[in-house]
Write a structure and sequence with these properties.
Layout: H1 16-29, H2 42-49, H3 53-66, E1 69-72, E2 76-79, E3 83-86, H4 93-99, E4 104-114, H5 118-124, E5 132-141, E6 144-154, H6 168-175, E7 181-190, H7 193-199, E8 206-215, E9 221-230, E10 234-237
Parallel strand pairs: 3-10
Antiparallel strand pairs: 1-2, 4-5, 5-6, 6-9, 7-8, 8-9
């Protein structure tokens, strides 16, 4: 991949790694470097730009913190896409990633059955002695971690945990208990130490916290999910209409799992 027009401007007082990061950032913005394109190895990039591998590594780390670059294990460093996700569409993580041409996957953090906390019982309209499943997963696309999701599902709607493999929604759909509508709340926050480690971010980096309730057509709450999405990779979009228009009177959908 050629780097068009990189000028490291040796008389510039800006640290060299920041100049290199600025040069890469500029070429992404003007389209010389395309989303999904791989950067050369650190050694080759150092030779092309005339800087040390340590400098190259610092520039790459800076751009990764910004979300401009991402690393795929065993594959290299790539120009990362910024994901614009409609917040009013009912779709699953797996199908959404597939529509973008990415390979989605999940890593289980916990998968167990028990009784709900008072907050979970209230959200799901349960008593605290009723049984629920707690499913916490790290969601990835093309090997890159994007979100941590903790879904709480009443056993009533999902009798057997082993039915959930890659997609929770696929399992619920087979049982006839997939949610058809939902409500969600999105807030900005900072990554905890645990979240930063799982999402390959620095502690205190920006995350989007999403709390969702998914409902069946009869109004019963089938899902209570709390998620942490990488703030450097996600924008959640909402379509706005003038109050009183027919479409403005409907409920927002739910994007999850």
């Amino acid at each position: 991949m050629p780097f068009r027009g990189i000028d490291m401007q040796r008389d510039d007082a800006t640290p060299i790694y920041m100049r290199l990061a600025n040069a890469i950032r500029t070429q992404v913005r003007d389209g010389s470097l395309q989303v999904g394109e791989a950067l050369p190895p650190e050694r080759e990039l150092g030779e092309v730009t005339g800087v040390s591998r340590v400098t190259v590594r610092k520039a790459i780390e800076l751009l990764m913190q910004e979300g401009l670059l991402s690393k795929r294990q065993g594959s290299g460093t790539y120009i990362a896409p910024h994901i614009e996700q409609p917040s009013s569409v009912l779709t699953g993580f797996s199908s959404d990633m597939a529509s973008r041409g990415w390979q989605s996957n999940s890593q289980w953090i916990q998968r167990k059955t028990g009784t709900p906390s008072p907050e979970e019982a209230l959200a799901l309209s349960l008593t605290t002695n009723q049984q629920i499943h707690r499913l916490e997963r790290l969601r990835t696309a093309d090997g890159e971690p994007l979100a941590i999701e903790l879904a709480v599902i009443p056993v009533l709607f999902l009798p057997d945990l082993s039915l959930v493999d890659k997609s929770l929604y696929t399992a619920l759909e087979r049982l006839g208990t997939k949610p058809v509508s939902g409500l969600q709340r999105i807030t900005a926050s900072l990554a905890t130490q645990k979240e930063a480690k799982l999402l390959d971010m620095t502690k205190g980096a920006a995350v989007l916290r999403i709390e969702r309730r998914g409902y069946l057509s009869d109004g019963r709450c089938v899902e209570f999910t709390r998620s942490a999405y990488r703030g450097d990779r996600y924008d959640f979009l909402s379509e706005l209409r003038v109050s009183g228009s027919p479409a403005a009177d409907g409920k927002d959908g739910l994007n999850e799992n």
